[in-house]
Structure formats: structure tokens, C-alpha cells
Input
Amino acid sequence: MVAVACGGAIGATLRFVISAAMQKVAKGFPAGTMLVNVLGCLLLGLLLGATNDAKELSPAARNFLAVGLLGSFTTFATFSAEAIQLMRERQHAPVLIYVVGSVILGLLCVLVGHELALKFTRG
Output
């Protein structure tokens, strides 16, 4: 539990900092949430691929990284709320790009991260 809480504190803080920085760059589009979700997917894929046997990491380390840090770094609830807000504002193209792009990029990043980690850990 302590490992998850510590990872969660770090992940949530990183998400806040990145999202705040991205708001200055991409006004009117939830680029910060999209970035942390896609990056989190890539990192989770790398973690899963690198620790395929689960022997490389202790349960506490795996919980710290996967559940705590990456679980709080990424955010499905914020993604959903921001998509609804774009719909309410009748921002049809941005909401389509955001929703479809987030899902497709998220899936691809988990796959790419996993495959890269397998390639590098298995030689």
C-alpha cells in the first residue's frame, strides 16, 4: 500500500505539472491529458515488456510503478470529462481528434513499448 501511495503522489504531481505546461501551449485543446495518457501507455508497455516474467521486479516495485505512478499519471476520468466539454462546446473536429487519437495512440504505445522492451531484454 505504501508503494502505491508513494507512486501515486509522484504520478499525480507529474501529471499536474505536464498538464499545466501544455495548457500554455495548446489553448482550447486538452493536449496535456492526451500527452500524459499516451506517454503513460508507452511507459506501461515498456514496463510490462521488460518485466514479462515478473521476476525482474518485486511486487512492491511493480505496484509502485504500474499501479501508483502510472495509474495516477494517466487519467481516464479527466479524458472523458474533457471530451464531454469539447462536445458541449460543439468542437466536433477537436473532440474527434482527441478521442480517436487518444485511444489509437494509447493502444499503439502500449504495443510499441511492450515490443521494444521485449527486444531489448531478450537481446
Q: What stands out?
A: The chain has one domain: 2-122. The mean pLDDT is 93. The chain is about 85% helix and 0% strand. Residues 2-122 form one domain.
